[in-house]
Amino acid sequence: MSGFWNLVLIFSCMLVQPGRRWVTAQSPTETPVNQPHKEVSVNIGESATLQCCLSEKQPRMMAWFKQPTRKKPQVIFKFFSTSGETFYNGFQASHFQIDRYSNCFNMTILNTTQSDEAMYYCALITPYLVFGDGTFLKIKGANVTIPSETSKPAVSDNSIVCEPTPYGNNTNMSTQENTVIGLGTAFGLCALLIFCLTYFILRRRKSDKIETSIEDYSGMRQIQESEAETVIYTAVQFNKKKAKAEKRKTGLAENCVYSSVK
């Protein structure tokens, strides 16, 4: 059992580490991804420029995402410092213009249509995804409700699983995430402990039943063997008495015959 508890301790230490987070944290004074405009409005057919600046001077990887209302986000393109932009999910490079200024990656949507109305997120990959606040592109004349501030990008086909990091309240967010991770780890360890205890109890009961069955079987066998010996012994005694009786009877007959001859 000591080896088992050592494994549980090692497992808990690996999961619960101070300051460990699944999403890169933001500094209260510096935003890794800055999208200065929460909303941009243009007329149909006009061009719309969405601004995004990163805290890293020479980022290796970044991406732009599009999330229509009540739909999953899709990656528009990813930028790699070694190969440039790569477009995904059927987005055409001719419909977009990427302007890079130092650590800023501004995306201009050319000849906008109503289908371009959506929430756009700029993300830094370091290697986790760190999202900006997002910019909602409103096409004038389109009846689309602006998504709430709590909406977050979900999983897309060609993106890393993550969630946006809103600006502000970073300390509370970090505390909540650490609390959730700690509670999840505690529940997991409790479930593992309950499973192990149940297994050992059932195994002990099964072992006790087997030992009891073996003892009962041995006792019954001894009783049966004792009864068999008694029956055999009685039968042998009966045969001896009968033989003696027959011998005595024969002797008497011989005496009688002998007497008659005389």
Descriptive account of the structure:
Residues 28-122 form the Ig-like domain. InterPro entries: Ig-like_dom, Ig-like_dom_sf, Ig-like_fold, Ig_sub, Ig_V-set, TCR_complex_component. The protein is α+β, with helices and mostly antiparallel strands. It is built from two helices and twelve strands. The chain has helices at residues 2-15, 170-261; strands at residues 33-34, 39-42, 48-50, 53-54, 61-67, 74-80, 84-87, 96-101, 104-109, 118-125, 129-131, 135-139. Residues 15-29, 146-151, 154-161 and 163-171 have low confidence and may be disordered.
What brief labels describe this structure?
three-stranded antiparallel β-sheet; 262 residues; seven-stranded mixed β-sheet; alpha+beta; 2 helices; Immunoglobulin-like
What structural category arises from helix and sheet content? alpha+beta
Considering DSSP H and I runs of 4 or more, what fraction of the residues is helical? 40-55%
Run of helices and strands: HEEEEEEEEEEEEH
Radius of gyration based on Cα positions? 45 Å
Q: How does the major sheet shape up? A: 7 strands, mixed
Content of β-strand: 15-25%
CATH architecture verdict of the domain at 29-167:
Sandwich
Give the CA-based shape. Answer: rod-shaped
Top CATH class of the domain at 29-167: Mainly Beta
Count of alpha/pi helices: 2
The N- to C-terminal Cα distance equals 99 Å
CATH domain topology of the domain at 29-167: Immunoglobulin-like
Domain Ig-like: 28-122
Subcellular location: Cell membrane
Pfam family, one: V-set
Keywords: Cell membrane, Disulfide bond, Glycoprotein, Immunity, Membrane, Signal, Transmembrane, Transmembrane helix
